[in-house]
Amino acid sequence: MHSVAYQPRPQTVGQAFGLHETPDSLALRSSVAYVVDQNTSETLFDKNSRAVVPIASITKLMTAMVVLDSRMPLTDVIQVTDEDRDYEKYTGSRLAVGSELNREDMLHIALMASENRAAAALSRYYSGGRPGFIAAMNAKAKSLGMTDTHFENSTGLTSQNVSSARDLVKMVNAAYQYPLIRKFSTDRSYEVFTGKRNLAYNSTNALIRNSTWDIGLQKTGFINEAGECLVMQANIHGRPVVMVLLDSSGKYSRFADAGRLRTYLDTAGEPHITSADTGGGGT
Fold this sequence. Notes:
Number of domains: 1
Shape: globular
Largest sheet: 6 strands, mixed
CATH superfamily: DD-peptidase/beta-lactamase superfamily
Strand content: 15-25%
CATH topology: Beta-lactamase
């Protein structure tokens, strides 16, 4: 018998930068963690918030804003084509080529279930096509003062989509102004008809099904280079906060880290800044 060599998961960009070596008082599994008071912008927790790293599907919050800013009809039907397949990471999708959904349903499953072909198709059905859409994403980031941020596609399935936790707070605050983004991103489940069959989708965020959390907006993300990522707006003891967790190791660790931060905020008096907000390079 031939033994099969164990293939370790590739290093994340954060691991390559040594961001996981940064100590923090909560022993978080995320190498980047940043929490701010949404009303006052006061920093409540800071670990490597200036590091520029891949953000994976957190990207889709910007995708959603560009779609809604375009004011193109949400009732327009969009068809998935070969151009919407993932030719970089070769991820699969339940949304088969030929599927037809309206723009609103595409947006819904892109935000709630991180459906990549939906996000890809949305960028193609833009007035300037996909290049125009990517330009609009980067222009929107610039207008929001997101100086650490760059987008190459609408899905996040590339390590070239990068940002910092500080920029992502700006993006979450901007996205929070769109009622549809709040609604769709916090839905637990949703069913669509593709023209051929019904597909039932569920939220990618386990905390959405946890009644002890009061979440107003959320988005998850994962690619090998980014690790497990999570951004949220949540109310903790009536205080609205924005929470960013990037480059977390282990499938559920980002949710556990969110819980650790919530417990910390429940008990903390003074805001906590870790000593090692070292920044870091980006790709």
